[in-house]
Amino acid sequence: MKISYNWLLKYINTNLSAHDIAEKLTSIGLEVEELEHYSTLPKGIENLIVGHIVELQKHPNADLLHLTRVDVGGPELLSIVCGAPNVAMGQKVIVAREGVTLYPQNREPFSIKKSKIRGEFSEGMLCAEDEIGLGESHAGLLILDPSAEIGKPVSSYLRGYSDWIFEIGLTPNRVDAASHIGVARDLAALLGEKVIYPDANINVKEQSEPILKIIIEDKEACPRYSGLIIKDIEVKESPEWIQNYLRAVGLKPINNIVDATNFVLHELGHPLHAFDLSKIDGNKIIIKKSEPGSQFITLDKQERKLDGTELMICNAHEPMAIAGVFGGLKSGINSETKDIFIESAYFNPSSIRRTSRKHQLFTDASFRFERGADPNIMIKALTRVASLIRNNAGGEIIGPVYDSYPEEIKAIQLKFEFKYLNDIAGAEIPDLSVKNILEGLEFKILETDDTGFLIEIPTFKTDVKRPIDVVEEVLRIYSFDNIPVTKQLKSIVQVDKLYHSEKLRKRISAFLVNQGFYETYMLSFVKEEDNRYHSDDKPTIPVLNPISADLSQVKNNILIPGLKTLQYNINRQREDVRIFNWDHIHSNVDGKLKQEYRLGIWMTGNNQAENWKNKGKKVDFYDLKSVVEQVISLSGRTGFEIVVLENSNFHYGMAYKDHNKKDLAIFGRISDKLIKQLDLGQEVFYAEFDAKMLLKAGKSALKYDPISKFPKVERDLALIVPEELQYAQIRDLIAKSDTKILKEISIFDVYKGDQLGKGFKSYAIRMAFEDKTQTLEDKTVDKVIQKIVFRLENELSVKIRS
Length: 802
What we know:
- It is built from 20 helices and 44 strands.
- By secondary structure, the chain is α+β, with helices and mostly antiparallel strands.
- α13 packs antiparallel against α16.
């Protein structure tokens, strides 16, 4: 949300600079994310000065150039070579001195340097309007009025508007601060000042009979509707000061009627809408739901299909606006409009939010209505905009002021106790400070006693409903920095388990980063198709009021979002990608929400970049397998069974299962079907861990072994095995045969051939033995080998190949 410094100062008496105000706003919860200087003058013009040409002669070496001597208010005249056809003695001109950067229109910026032009020194530049971004003309120098003061900045001479703009990261609960008055209110409460409200006095010419009839058919969606009529206006440009304020906060001025409604919206925070009175057929305004299947053309000339859920502002025959969201093309203000009806309404936030999301119409009005506008500011906003229009467009305000308010929305009253506040704060906050803060924020103090206040919460404070909410309001203005830390807080968290689990998670993340992986963060909401691409078929959970169609369901897998991240990179010629992601997924199991914690790892492209020494190497299954095994090793988990993976998301893969047959990890190459569906165009290898199970060990520690003083003994075995037998089964059996001196097991060759017989293959296994207390003898190793061979032959039907 943008707030103008100049505009803000209309409502609060302070000498604070924009930078000081930015700090104070951030300290009270209105975080200023950016403070930007705004000017209607071009960039860099503040460095240009007014000069006076006091000498002029032809350039001796160029017919089209002149030598000038220019007074810029300094001790010495500047020598400047100029090629403009209109240069003349005595002119007041715009001078760019040495070192100044110019920002011309439609060209790259350039800096002025002292140089020789055809043999003559030039110490600056005399500027045309296109060279400084003021226009497009390059016909000659921009000549200033003779009254321009020599040496003064050009920015002080040319007409322009300058301001500072606060970009405030407004949280959804703070709609009360979605305006200049709202921000001024918080700042005034902090500074002990009073908000200066704008004058909104109007003269109303009462009629014996109302011109319009207001009919609210849907009172739930529209609890209050008000408005007034202004006749005989003149539609034209707004005054310059209004245009400057609107442009400063990013709005384009349209005309004096529409600009007035936009001005009041950003001033008071309440949306308004102007209708051409002549377009209100039947002199009726009817607030009702749309007709299902009907079409409506909005102000942006887009035809929108209505489904019957939208609240519409209608005349006797047709809709005129989507209530609280966007106006209609037919009833809008144009240069021919003479009479208008100004609407000031309060709409149900849920209704506006649903309509805004459905039609992807996110306007300044819907932003405020869907967060909860103030139902009791409507008449104040109405009279304020009428006052502006009367002053800037003329006309006559015709009574009555319409106000249909069937059931009043009353302010909440509650007892606020000092002891409760002080217990929460952990400090004694003076009663007078509390009173001043609450009154500064426009809470009404109805009664006072020794224990606290009976207060009435203003209806613009939509997020304040309980005593704890009032505590938050007091403390953010009082400042948490003013509360001393007197004792340690007691933690109610199971620190030990959480600490070790988080420590392990960070260790695994650090390992992956060191292996060239980037950690990614993914949204919790996804497209419906992203939940259905994968084959697990977990029940999906729709979002009731999605922000957009692309975020319509709660994520039930991390595979597809990760693949889409790869797709985004690959489409931008970043084909070698390694990423990982810790995230939760959700599914609907028998009507109950199920949450699971996952770690996903994705690899694609080259494992080793191509260079002069090698041709590069593509990532393969074994690269991923190595990473998976190291992650498991870091967790300290043991005792898992390795099985072939049966999952249609994978072309092939493996799984690590615990003793309960639950998957700790699945990994492999992603199926060609998914690769094609997502148009990835290259192989992808993926691993997914049950992160809760992975981190359950939690307390695993890094260990090291000193280098042994005694040599290793290596032995090889050539095995003929059934084709379906996996190396992992052989490795696990060998590992269990002797755990004292057997230190390493590896496979260094796999062979298939006719001489082995159909259904068989050969593995070449290497084993390393070591005893840290003595040198191993051959007979000791032979005994272990015999034991291993016996078990392989009897338990796995393996034959020793001679």
